[in-house]
Write a structure and sequence with these properties.
Elements: H1 2-6, E1 22-24, E2 27-29, E3 42-50, E4 53-60, E5 79-86, E6 102-109, E7 127-135, E8 143-145, E9 167-168, E10 174-177, E11 180-186, E12 197-198, E13 201-207, E14 216-224, E15 233-234, E16 236-237
Parallel strand pairs: 3-16
Antiparallel strand pairs: 1-2, 2-3, 3-4, 4-11, 5-6, 5-13, 6-7, 7-8, 7-9, 8-14, 10-11, 12-15, 13-14
């Protein structure tokens, strides 16, 4: 069902890219492509487990995290850049109601607003989020972060940042080193990740200029590791 929902949803900006991707064991590998900005040109993405930790890793052709969106000075219409791992996790596994949409971990940078838990500041650093996505033709790439309607009080995680979106702001260790970005998550917080499927995406998102639903759209996909977002990766123990 998830693969059916995702197939055909995302459109890579610029041109159809001649990917030569192959899933090797737990990872998804992709041929470098000069059309894609080097810092977002995924060459490998994987999720592994070791001991009591899950490690989400993406490697790119250039320097990971080097490029960031320009500040606009206002929230509405502002941009977000993201390294994303779409997964087959259920939204109930990350603290929301069950079966709400596509669960993805995203490492983001957005210089125009803060969305850390408990009123914290994070606009100046790359930081992780759980997001729940759904299809929406109103968005440039066909996907949005799911909105919470006015007056609704859905189940949300303790680190929900208080914005009207199915988004979580956990404080997971997030590291950039050379061509790689990785996030460490205790397995006790995401038991369902073992044996899950995944993919890798780099993308730009945009806040609605009118602050209406959809509030946060996936506006531009830079690259999909598998080429077609069929989630060929499998979470396995690190070797």
């Amino acid at each position: 069902m998830l693969r059916k929902l995702l197939t055909g949803t995302l459109v890579v900006a610029g041109t159809a890219l001649p990917y030569l991707e192959t899933a090797y064991a737990h990872s998804v590998e992709a041929a470098p492509n000069e059309v894609v900005q080097a810092s977002f040109d995924i060459v490998e993405t994987k999720i592994t487990t070791k001991g009591d930790t899950a490690l989400f890793t993406t490697r790119v052709r250039g320097e990971a995290g080097k490029d960031k969106p320009d500040a606009t000075g206002k929230f509405e219409g502002s941009s977000v850049y993201a390294y994303v791992w779409p997964t087959t996790l259920d939204s109930g596994e990350i603290g929301f109601e069950k079966s709400q949409g596509i669960v993805a971990l995203a490492v983001t940078f957005h210089p125009d607003f803060d969305d850390a838990a408990n009123g914290g500041k994070n606009r100046h650093v790359w930081h992780p989020h759980w997001v729940v996505l759904a299809k929406d033709k109103a968005c440039g790439a066909g996907l949005k972060v799911i909105d919470i309607p006015d007056g609704a009080k859905p189940k949300v995680p303790k680190t929900w940042p208080g914005v009207p979106l199915l988004i979580d702001s956990p404080d997971y260790p997030t590291n950039f080193k050379g061509d790689t970005v990785d996030v460490e998550i205790p397995l006790s917080l995401i038991n369902g990740i073992k044996g899950a499927s995944f993919d890798g995406v780099t993308a730009g998102l945009k806040v609605n200029g009118n602050l209406h639903s959809p509030l946060l759209c996936v506006s531009n996909v830079f690259k999909v590791a598998s080429g077609n977002l069929n989630l060929p990766g499998k979470v396995e123990p690190a070797k």
